[in-house]
Amino acid sequence: MGVNLRLSKRGDYVVRSAICLARAYPSDRPTKLREVSAETGVPRTYVSQILGDLVRAEVAVSSAGLHGGYRLARPPAAISLLEVVEAGEGSLVAESCALGDGPSRWEEIVPLHDAWRRASQALRDELAVTTLAELAEADQSIETGAHRAPADAQRHRVAAVAVADSVHIELPAAAVAARLQEGDSWMAPHVAAAAADVDAFRLRVGPGGPSWLGKTVAVRLGRPERAGDGVRVAIVWEATGASALFPRFEGTLDVVDLDPERCEVSLLGRYRPPLGRAGQALDDVLLGRVARATVRSLLRRVAHGLEQAPAATADLEPAPVSEGPPTFSEPQPAGAAG
Questions:
Q1: Domain residue spans in the chain?
Q2: CB 258 within 8 Å of CB 170
Q3: Which of 56, 88, 262, 331 would be a feasible disulfide site paired with 14, CB 3.0-4.6 Å?
């Protein structure tokens, strides 16, 4: 068993949240609690506490109101990783001796003291010269697949599966894109309902049972972007809770006209399933079935919801579409920073 050099769960969440705010910094707009939760996987029940740690450490600032949220107090290049880590972990200066009780001659100082102090200081020095901007850049590189994993990487990989499905909707693509541009809160009930369908499915076909019914669902939609002959919208959704591993999806919605009155909506991405009862992981076969059932149920519910309110969508102007890779748009929720 090696020496534990991992961050605590709180420290982990603080670093994740700081990286999220660093990547959002160029937009010059506050980030909502639910955006941080969806982007980082920090449970929605904890995210306000985690961001509060960054505010108290003067790494971040918060603002209230419709357009409120959280943003970094300074540019990412002016914030050290040491500040961020200590915001979650407290001071990294040891307050007690690394060795326990020993011979009487060790009552005031132990042989390990000087070496341990130098090692601790070396860690603090390295964290102090590493900026949050560097971490944000590395995170973006990982996201695009350009960052090569080091040989000694030991990150535990959670099983996930690639999924793709599509549905036809009796509305033009412009109307669907406009609805997606309105915000993301309307989609959360559809995600929750689809998950409930799949929990019932899991009761019938696999181990475990309902593992996240009643949990908070965070959904984040991006700004519509041109993609070939259609429109692409980035989407992230996740159910969050206090202790278990909850499902998460990251991918895109593609909207393409089939004719003047119909379009096809395709959902493509990677789905991470929830753990079963007692923390059981799904086997590969069941994982694929759960992923496909979740996406199919969600698309059907979204299609039905959009078609049930054609007057609210069909007359909208086409959503502004930009060139380039999907980026996340400014949210439209009510409330202060959530």
A1: 9-144, 161-314
A2: no
A3: 88
Q: What proportions of the chain, in percent to the nearest 5, are helix, strand and coil?
A: 45, 20, 40
What is the chain's pLDDT, residue by residue, as a tens digit (338 residues)? Answer: 445 567 888 889 999 999 999 999 998 889 988 888 877 878 777 888 999 999 999 999 999 887 889 999 999 999 999 999 999 988 877 666 655 555 544 455 656 677 877 888 898 899 999 999 999 998 888 777 776 766 655 555 556 788 889 999 999 998 888 888 776 678 878 887 887 776 666 555 454 444 444 456 778 888 888 877 888 888 888 766 544 456 778 888 899 999 989 999 999 888 877 655 444 455 667 777 878 888 888 899 889 888 886 444 434 344 444 444 333 333 333 333 45
Q: Domain 161-314 belongs to what topology? A: Alpha-D-Glucose-1,6-Bisphosphate; Chain A, domain 4 (3.30.530)
Cα–Cα distance measured from residue 115 to residue 120, given in angstroms and rounded to the nearest whole number: 9
CATH of domain 9-144: 1.10.10.10
Angle between helices 81-89 and 132-144 (to 10 degrees): 90
Do 9-144 and 161-314 share a fold? Answer: no
Q: For the range 58-64, what are the long-range contacts, defined as Cβ-Cβ under 8 Å and sequence gap of 24 or more?
A: 59/18, 59/83, 59/84, 59/87, 60/18, 60/21, 62/30, 62/337, 63/30, 63/337, 64/336, 64/337
Query: What is each CA distance from 309 to 179, 205, 306, in whole angstroms?
Result: 10, 35, 6
Whether the CB-CB separation of 136 and 23 falls below 8 Å is answered with yes
Structure tokens at 163: 């999924």
